[in-house]
Amino acid sequence: MRLLLPLCFLLLSSCGLKTDLVIYDDSAPEPQLASVSYQVVGKVLQLQLNIVGGSGLVLYQIDRTEVEPNCQCIGNWLRYYESSLSRQRMDLKRNIKLRNPEKTYAFRIRAKDELGRKSAWSKVFKVKASNG
Hints:
The chain is mostly beta strands and 132 residues long. Helices cover 8% and strands 41% of the residues.
């Protein structure tokens, strides 16, 4: 009887879903933004970027803030967009509508791989909607 109780506990605790060990290749270089280009067409900011490195799937994050008109200071950064994980790394495009033509916005972008490793932020760029 003494041996039966620990044996039952051992059998019950070993039940459950068993999955294979997920192995990530962390020898791959960290993700980096190879190039970031942008242009403003009317009230739309057109972004195009390329990512190099990273393990497996990658995504990119875009932060935005408003620029103070008096001092040209950058405010607090807020996450504006985060793409879904994808194998695509080249010619990534995103259109962002600039809703208020009187305001100047600042943007920054970074890449992230499926291991959670992040690239450095891109250079901050400021844009304003154009009349056209």
